[in-house]
Write a structure and sequence with these properties.
With 111 residues, chain A is mainly beta. Chain A has no helices and 11 strands.
């Protein structure tokens, strides 16, 4: 069974630009969550989608948004990038909350 | 109240020794406590988890101890091996559907 796939693996953007990250969950998993990982803040919950609906949201500004498609694939968008958005963005899929399967992440650098 | 505090930030242990990582929480609504292990360049992976009605859970060399009254839980790694060198995250799940992570502990096991 293929794992969670995140693309791209690395991304370099400049301040003010926007970016879209993609996540393909494990087949059969309907829940997809996104996390931001930074050395100072650890893993912070962004949002969770289940069957194309946002089910939970973390404490991030509205510049961070996401969506889920009918095949459970998910995208995350960050608009008007700031230097502080530089981080590893992790996607996790799950069949239940008890076990999340994480992808290897997208490393975003904002210059 | 949504925080999970983890210590120490980093830990160096000799091969064969015991690694101990501690976490504390405030929100009594948390009802599921997993630990995730993350190797460099990879996403976190579920290691072991416990529910608050159990005081201890053991899986191989990994043990979670849970103190409900103190709102603390810890991970013990017995007979630590260099292959255990990784970053460990404790987490807590609340009924609102969010998995809240601790700050992480970088473990280094010296041969």
């Amino acid at each position: 069974k293929a794992g969670v796939t995140q693309t791209p693996r690395y991304l370099i953007k400049t301040r003010g630009q926007q970016v879209t990250l993609s996540c393909s969950p494990i087949s059969g998993h309907r829940s997809v969550s996104w996390y931001q990982q930074t050395p100072g803040q650890g893993l912070q919950f962004l949002f969770e989608y289940f069957s194309e609906t946002q089910r939970n949201k973390g404490n991030f500004p509205g510049r961070f948004s996401g969506r889920q498609f009918s095949n459970s694939r998910s995208e995350m968008n960050v608009s008007t990038l700031e230097l502080g958005d530089s981080a590893l963005y992790l996607c996790a899929s799950s069949a239940s909350f008890e076990k999340l399967f994480f992808g290897s992440g997208t490393q975003l650098s904002v210059l | 109240q949504q925080q999970v505090k983890q210590s120490p930030q980093s830990l160096i242990v000799q091969k064969g020794g015991i690694s101990i990582i501690n976490c504390a929480y405030e929100n009594t609504a948390f009802d599921y406590f997993p630990w995730y292990q993350q190797f460099p360049g990879k996403g976190p992976a579920l290691l072991i988890a416990i529910r608050p009605d159990v005081s201890e859970k053991k899986e191989g060399r990994f043990t979670i101890s849970f103190n409900k009254s103190a709102k603390q839980f810890s991970l013990h790694i017995m007979d630590s091996q260099p292959g255990d060198s990784a970053t460990y995250f404790c987490a807590a799940y609340n009924q609102g559907g969010k998995l809240i992570f601790g700050q992480g502990t970088e473990l280094s096991v010296k041969p």
